[in-house]
Amino acid sequence: MVPERSFKLFSVVSVAILLSIILAASSAGIASEITVTDSWGRDVSIPENVTRVICSGPGCLRYLVYLQAQDLAVAVDDMEKSRNKFESRPYFLANPQLRDKPLFGEFRGHDNPELIVALDPAPQVIFKTYGKTGHDPVELQKKTGIPVIALDHGQLGVGKRQMEETLLLMGRIIGREQRAKDVIAFFNTVIEDLRKRTADIPEEKRPTCYIGGIAYRGPHGITSTEPAYPPFIFVNAANIAADPSRTSSEQLQQTTFSKESLVAIDPDKIFVDLATIQGGKDVSGLEQLQNDPAFRILTAVRKGEIYGVLPYNWYSQNHGSILADAYFVGKVLYPERFEDIDPVKKADEIYAFLVGKPVFDQMNKVFGNLAFEKIDLSKAE
């Protein structure tokens, strides 16, 4: 029979040993886990405290910047290493230090598992947008042993709910839930402001308009457009390329509007996505408007109603540029409703909130200082 004094001593020693084991495990980095459900419906176990990540796929790193968490990225894809003359990603311009991080793969989600497992420090989580292109998220997780969270990128217009869910999920995982809510509230406030300014304008007082030169995996000419161009939707513009018989979700992608249709409908004002400039003389929508005899007869060309807007479809949607463009479009179409708005200042307010600093001037210089201006085609390069 164990004496009572010996039993008490044994108990004290046992507790001390147990505490030592717990403390040792903690110092060795053994952390508790939580389970989250990604946009593919997969239940993924991740560390409870995530402080190191990588972002794969178009728009993924942009969302990390929106959440003010760019310092958590331990590596980047080769898109962030590029030095494109025509750079139009506000998140990248505001955070040039991103290009100095190690490389983990190619752009559009073509990840390199070998590079990922060799990273030091290693990411605890891989965020991945557009998972059906590039490296499959399930296979990437198997090859690296690192949890992969598949995300639905969503959009600022149609697909906004998916975008919000993605921001909230990322925020929850990296401890930025309040910032995610603030970003969503910011988008809602701006979109509602644009809507209120223009909702009650009678249809007959809305100038007809067209957007050309929309980029999609590269530059395109003036007939490249978007029937559901978000800035037009937000200010209730009379977009001649929109098809009222189809829903906005059915008109999401870039499409071609025939030269014949553009000339026949003859819009009052033409906006040009300045991404078209990077195509050079053979592609540039500005060159086409100036030199093609069919386009020179357009009312907007003859009257000088040609306006430059910032590209937004650059490694997926740059939501800040969409909102900035919307204010400029609104100012052009309905100046009396936007008397209090300086589009350049408004753009920088938007960029400062989303990516951390004003970058309008930096982007505008890249595109010949033609953004948010009436363009004189005879002087445009």
Question: What order do the helices and strands come in, and which of them pair?
Answer:
Elements: H1 4-27, E1 33-37, E2 43-47, E3 53-56, H2 60-66, E4 76-77, H3 90-93, E5 103-106, E6 110-111, H4 113-117, E7 125-129, H5 137-144, E8 148-151, H6 160-174, H7 177-198, E9 208-212, E10 224-225, H8 230-234, E11 238-239, E12 255-256, H9 259-265, E13 269-273, H10 285-291, H11 293-296, H12 299-303, E14 306-309, H13 319-333, H14 343-355, H15 360-366
Oligomeric description of these chains: single chain
How much helical structure, as a percent, in the residues?
25-40%
CATH architecture of the largest domain: 3-Layer(aba) Sandwich
The proportion of strand residues reads 5-15%
Number of helices: 15
The name of the CATH superfamily of the largest domain reads Nitrogenase molybdenum iron protein domain
Integer count of domains: 2
DSSP summary, beta strand count: 14
- Residue-averaged pLDDT: 89
Features of this protein?
381 residues, alpha/beta, Rossmann fold, 2 domains, three-stranded parallel beta sheet, 39% helix, elongated
